[in-house]
Write a structure and sequence with these properties.
414 residues, alpha/beta, Aspartate Aminotransferase, domain 1, seven-stranded mixed beta sheet, four-stranded antiparallel beta sheet, 15 strands, disordered C terminus
Length: 414
């Protein structure tokens, strides 16, 4: 075992691991477990502080409104933004749909084009693709280099390109794209840029002013917060041009029989009662992550990732996909002769939880593998015991299937 990465100083803050200390959870890229400070904050709000916001003149409602807006400011500060540019959504998927309908559609005409990368999650693919199909615009896909980064995205950008959407880090590989460099050049060319930060928000220090993107989205459940809450940053001058995505209470100004007027800014995109408990949890999750980083979680996870990679590489019948060497601690493996779900179910019998399949990234997976892959992703609660349990599970599979399932490369050499 690697010195200094045997124990996690944060594991005890997760009640699920106090109850199940033997559980090796490797699916943090899909959803992180939620630590006690986040759960406590959500419960405290619901028990003692709850009221509807932006509506009531009574003290509890005004206090809840102040809390809600303070959470917005806190989460905006987490990515170097101001509160008046951060919209609460249900997550990255809804954020991309908001942008597709309110940012892209009004600007897109037949003959125009939108560019994405091959490594996008479906949430950063399908909304753009649908609008292009409906309008008669071209949907372009930029390929990847051998390291898994987008390759020469500007070969696909021309005078009819209206928007480029790309991930900061792949949910399958963890590979990081040079988004700051790309977004800066796109802005010079007058092309809108959208960054999917769902995988990077928990791992990297984000600053939208440095990234120079026009919009950026992330989800609460991928950074130790609750499900059903996310944040969408939109640059102020771009936000001013966007019509509402949904209409209803909370975002309306005046309603008449023949027309209605709506609030401008972020509140104009938050129709209905917001997910107040979720916002409380997301703000607490941001605080939790910042505390972990202050105590060295990034270095811890990178070292632990090295241990994970070394362990996986002992098993020659598994091939690793490109990765970021632990900067985003995601490692995916495959074998054309083993269905990843079979291996996942086998490992789960001994308390090792990993994600099998195509990971909502079918174009990428179909390019890289024949039958999907098995993904391992670390969280601050992960430790060397988790990796040891994984190693034991892989050894058990190897013993049980010896001589039956060889890697394609081994067959060709024999």
């Amino acid at each position: 075992m690697c010195s200094g990465v045997d124990m996690s100083q944060w594991r005890e803050q997760f009640s699920v691991f106090r109850k199940r200390p033997e559980w090796a959870y490797f699916d943090n890229a899909a959803s992180c477990q939620v630590p006690d400070p986040v759960l406590d904050t959500m419960l405290e709000y619901q028990r003692e502080l709850h009221a509807n916001v932006h509506r009531g003149s009574y003290q509890q409602s005004q206090h809840a409104t102040a809390l809600f807006e303070s959470w917005r400011a806190q989460i905006a500060g987490f990515i170097g933004a101001s509160a008046d540019t951060l919209i609460f959504t249900r997550g990255t998927t809804e954020s991309m749909n908001v942008l597709a309908e309110s940012l892209l559609r009004p600007r897109l005409k037949a003959g125009d084009n939108v560019v994405v990368t091959l490594s996008e999650h479906h949430a950063n693919w399908l909304p753009w693709q649908r609008v292009c199909e409906q309008v008669g615009a071209e949907f372009r896909v930029a390929g990847l280099n051998a390291a898994g980064q987008v390759e020469d995205i500007f070969a696909h950008v021309d005078s009819r390109t209206r928007l480029v959407a790309l991930n900061h880090a792949s949910n399958v590989m963890g590979v990081i794209n040079p988004v700051a460099e790309i977004c800066a050049k796109l802005r010079q060319q007058g092309v809108l840029s959208v960054v999917d930060a769902a995988q990077s928000a928990a791992q990297l220090n984000l600053d939208v002013s440095q990234l120079q993107c026009d919009a950026l989205a992330f989800s609460g459940h991928k950074l130790y917060g609750p499900t059903g809450i996310g944040a969408l940053y939109v640059r102020a001058d771009v936000l001013d041009t966007m019509p509402p995505y949904q209409v209803g209470g909370g975002m309306v100004d005046m309603v008449y029989a023949d027309h209605s007027t709506f609030h401008r800014g972020v509140q104009g995109f938050e129709a209905g009662t917001p997910n107040l408990v979720g916002a409380a949890g997301l703000a607490a999750a941001v605080e939790f992550i910042q505390g972990c980083r202050a105590k060295g979680s990034s270095a811890y996870l990178r070292a632990l990732f090295g241990q994970l990679k070394d362990t996986i590489e002992r098993f020659e019948w598994l091939t690793c996909l490109p990765h970021s060497d632990g900067v985003v601690p995601v490692l995916s493996v495959h074998n054309p002769d083993i269905h990843p779900r079979d291996l996942a179910v086998f490992l789960d019998q001994d308390g090792v939880s990993a994600r099998a399949g195509r990971h909502c990234a079918q174009p990428l997976i179909n390019k890289l593998t024949a039958n999907g892959c098995l993904r391992f992703s670390l969280g601050v609660h992960s430790n060397a015991a988790d990796i040891q349990r994984l190693a034991e599970g892989l050894e058990a599979w190897q013993r049980e299937h010896k001589g039956q399932r060889q890697h394609k490369g081994q067959r060709e050499q024999s």
